[in-house]
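Entry:
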Amino acid sequence: MSAEIGGPFSDGTDERVRRVRLPADRRTPAAARAIVRSVLAEAKLDELLNEALLLTTELSTNAVEHAGTELDIEVVADESGLTVTVSDFAVGPLEKVTARPKNDLTDISEVSERGRGLLLVDHFASRWGTTHLPTGKGVWFRLDRKSAPAPTSGGQPSSRTETGPAPSVGALTALMHTVPDPYADDPLPDFAGDLLARVGEMVGAAGGTVRLDRGDGNGSQVLARYGRHPRPGDDLLRVPLAVHRPYAGELELDAAPSGYAQPLAALMAERLSLHLENDRLRRADVRRQTWLTFLAEASELLAQSLDVDLTMALIPQLVVPRLGQWCAVHTADEWGRLKLAAASHADEAILPELHKVLGEDGPDSVQARLREASRSGSQVPIGGPMDGFAVPLVARGQRLGTLAVGRHLRHRHDPDEVAVLEDVARRAALAIENARIHAERRRIAHTLQQSLLPPVLPVVDGIGFAAEYVPTGDDADVGGDFYDVVPLPDGRWLVVVGDVSGKGVQAAAVTGLVRDVIRVLVGDGKPLPEALDRLNETLVERGGGRYCTLALAAVGQRPDGQLSVELHLAGHDRPVLVRGNGRASFVGTGGTALGLLDSIATPSASVPMGPGDSLIFYTDGVTERRRGRELFGLDRLRDAAGPLAGYSADVVAARLRSTAIGFSAETPRDDIAILVLRNDALPV
C-alpha cells in the first residue's frame, strides 16, 4: 500500500488530500474507510461520517468485486465538505454520464440509468460523477457540510433538509447486503420482510407493508408487513415497485418525514424490484415450459386417436379446466352450418345450461359469434352469460368448425393462455382432419376389400362352404388375401384361395386381376393347369413385380356320396384334411408361386372326401400369427382342426378363426383367410 499526503493550498485554503493505492482483497473496504475516517477527523467534518463511510464502502467493494484490480482512493477535504474518488485499472467503455448533481426525485422510476446502478451515491451525494483515463476508470462523490451553502447545478440552488438522525453505516451496509435465501422455495416474502424491517428501524417507522399483484387473478396480496397496521387518515410514504406487467406492487411506510425516509424507501423498493423481476422472469419461464409440455402431451393424445368422434370428444377434456371454465367444439358441414360435436364444463351441473345456451340462435347469441369466427377465420369474443372467445378450426386451408372456450372463474385469459388456446385449436383441427382422412381411407379400403371377396358363398346340396376373413390390424390398408367359389362348366365347383404379396392399392389391383382372370379362364372351360399357366404369364407381364400363391380345388359329387377333389397348389400352403373320425393331415403337393418365373410347376393331387370329411384352406396369416417369437405354425393348426370333426363348415371356420386370433394379444400383422369345404352328404 502506497500513500501520498497533501497539505493546504498556497492561497491559504485549508485542504487536506490523501491518496492511497490499495490491493484488491476483502480487507480493502475497511482500509478505505479508515482513510476517510482519519481525513474527516483531521478536517473536523464528523457530521459527514456516516454518509462518507457508506459510500466509500460501496465504491471500494464494487471496485474489488467487479474490476478485480488494485484501486486508488483519493480523499480531499476542505472546510465545506469532502470529495472521494475511487479508481480501478480495468479498462471499460466510456460512459455518457460523467457528472451528476444530487438526485432529489421521489419516484424511483425517474432515476437515470447510471443512478440506478449507483443508487446510494445518487441519493446521498451532493454531486457525483465518473472519471476516465487510458489506464482505467473511477467514480467520485462530493458531500457538502450541512451548514455550508448548497452547491448549484445549472444555476438552480438545491438544499438538503435533515429532520432526523442519520442511520448508522452498519445499518446501511446491512441493508445493501441483505439477499434472499437461495435454498428457500419462495424466498421473496422473507427477503421483503427483512428489508422492510431494516428500513423501518432505520427511519423509525411505526409500520410498513409491501403489496404485490402477480396478475394471476388473486389481486393485490401482502408480501411482507412490519409493525402495526396503518390507521385511517395516516399519511403514508408510498413508493411504487419498478416491475413489469403483469406484476404491480407498492411499498408503504408509516414514517415521519425525514431526509432519509424517502431515499431509503426508494433504495429498498429498487432492491426488492430487482428480485421481483427475477421472480417474474423465472415464473414466466416455468409457465412457458409448462405450456410447452402441455402442448406436447395434447398433441400426443390427439395423434393417438384416428376416430373422428373420439378426437372431438377429447378436445374439451384437454381444455377444461386448465384453460377455461367450459369448452365446445362445433363442426361445419359443406354449407358452413355449425353443429355441436362435443362440450364440457368444469361444473357438470351447468352442462345442460351450457348446451341450451349453445343451441340458442339470434343476432347476439353464441351461435352468431361462432359463425362469425368460422367465416372470418379469426378470434371472436363471446359475451355473457357464457363469457369467453371462439377461434376457428382450420387445417390445410379448410375450415372445419370452431373451438369456443369460456373465461376462468376469477380472471380473463392472459396473452399466454390465448396463444396456447390458438395453438391447441390448430393442433385439434389437424387431428380432426387426419381422423377424417383416415376414416375415408378406411371406408375406401373396406369397400375395395369387400369387392375382392364374394358377397356370399353358394349353397349346394351335399357340400358345405364356409369362410372367415380378418383384415390386418391397419384397417386402412387393403390386404392381398382372397377366396372365391366359382361354378365350372362341367357342373363341378372351383374353390380358390390365394395370397398376393404386399398390401395397399397395388396389391388390391393384382388381387382383382388374379380373381377376374381365373373366372374368365375357367368359365371358358380351360383345364386348371392351363389356366394356371395363362395366369402366370399375365402376372409376369402385368403384375408389377408382385407374385401370388394360389390353391385351386375342383370339387365334384359322386353317386356314392363321396366328393372328388382335384387339388392344384401354386406355391400355397397345403390344406388340412380332417376325416370324420378326427384324424387330420396335410394333403397336396407344393408347386411354384405365380408371377415369379416364366414357367411353373403345379402338380395335381386327387383327394377323395367321404361324408363328414372337411378340407381346410388358409393363408399364411394363420400359420405366421406371432406371440413374441413364437409362431402359430402348421402343427398347431392341424392339432386345432382335428377335434372339429363332425361340426359344420361354419363352425369349423369360426372355431379356427377364434383359435388363431386368440393365440396372441397383438392385432393381426397380416390378413387371415380361412375357407372350409365339407362333405355334408349322409353316409350311404
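The radius of gyration is 46 Å.
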